[in-house]
Amino acid sequence: LPADALPAFLHLPSLGAAGAAVPLGPDDLHYVRRVCRGRDGDLATATDGAGKVAEVRLEDLRGAGRAVVLRVEERPLRRAATVLCGAPEGERADWLVEKLAELGIAVFQPVDCARGGWGRAAGRLERWQRLTVAALRQSRQAHRMEVRAPLPLAAAVAALDPATARWLAEPTGAPPAAAGQDAPLEVVAIGPAGGFNAAERDLMTAAGFTLISLSDNRLRTETAALAWAAGWAARGLARAPGVSRS
Amino acid sequence: LPADALPAFLHLPSLGAAGAAVPLGPDDLHYVRRVCRGRDGDLATATDGAGKVAEVRLEDLRGAGRAVVLRVEERPLRRAATVLCGAPEGERADWLVEKLAELGIAVFQPVDCARGGWGRAAGRLERWQRLTVAALRQSRQAHRMEVRAPLPLAAAVAALDPATARWLAEPTGAPPAAAGQDAPLEVVAIGPAGGFNAAERDLMTAAGFTLISLSDNRLRTETAALAWAAGWAARGLARAPGVSRS
What we know:
The structure is a homodimer.
Chain A: E1 9-11, E2 21-23, H1 26-35, E3 43-47, E4 52-59, E5 66-74, E6 80-85, H2 92-102, E7 107-112, H3 125-139, E8 146-147, E9 151-152, H4 153-158, E10 165-174, E11 185-190, H5 198-206, E12 210-212, H6 221-239
Parallel strand pairs in A: 1-3, 6-7, 6-11, 7-8, 7-9, 10-11, 10-12
Antiparallel strand pairs in A: 2-5, 3-4, 4-5
Helix pairs in contact in A: 2-3, 2-6
């Protein structure tokens, strides 16, 4: 179906229980009225971006606009991936954030490295939050990607859940298929444009990271992050019930 | 190794046999002098973007600049992928071209579809050519991605080599892992922002395309193209000799 043949998909962080009337923000109102050409009484889908998905009825669209919750369901996160990402060159982080969010990555954690820090790009957090909302709408997901403030690499590694399967993208690594099984919690570390240095690689291998390679070619930071995320998304599909066919 | 610790990597379309002196263009000269801080007598790697890779010696860098070919080898394309791509929204094709080139896609073929044509974006062919050169340098490949002028979908399908394994990205498809084996020649068709219509899907299934799904989420055109390309690149790695490990 083309996008405009589907019901509108809204991000309403304060989504309530059935019967609640949730005010639409200015962005949502514009989206519903102008992009979806919605009218009072139309049904739409809404999510709080934290696993709750509701069918809603749109009302007062010529006024302040509200969504009346008809029924709600919880969609728990079956698997979650974190991307620890060094700084790419220039403005390349903007689309990286958008693409990782579309592919369903749970956490984007910028990491400051010896050969590259996020510097002023850290000031783009608010823009990145907006991009994750747009990506959530676009891809109709129940979970919004969390974008965290930059951390030093060591701190980001120390903060990981102990159960997390850990990958370090390096051209010398094994192909992902040979590197082991899928896990409910996964993290990949992607070096900055200048790459990780030896101390950083040592820190990560000591913390249980396994080296994996993503391509025969040398990839830019943002391309490597996205390539890993695409593989992660595809692995999830392959395990989903009911989708295999002979 | 960080990028600046590697020898310069040049795109010289007129790369000759050993002994030839190839003039550097203004872009190459800038790259060698300013980015790589090269000096006369330095060695570099050069490719014609069509499988020829040479070791060259840089000379006259303060003048017009030239590369003297020391030795040449051919790197035949082991496997080649074509992306038939409907028009994404806005300027999103620019980075898509760059990323597909980095991942080693052989041919980018824009296709005009019922629900979306390339229109003015077709005028960006020259810019896209430049992006493929930059990506070739960045990823140090011997083969430059070919960017073709837009074609109607039916014409692009008719022009495919009969031996090409054919995939059609659709949310209802099978996971790539379930969809069959890898092939030396592969093509994927990605719908425009508005999606393929039924007649286009019928045309492709009649032409031997198999439906595959890339993610549980609805992906934008450019994200779907890139997700498929990342999977294709990773499959190539997994089959490469000498990289598996227990």
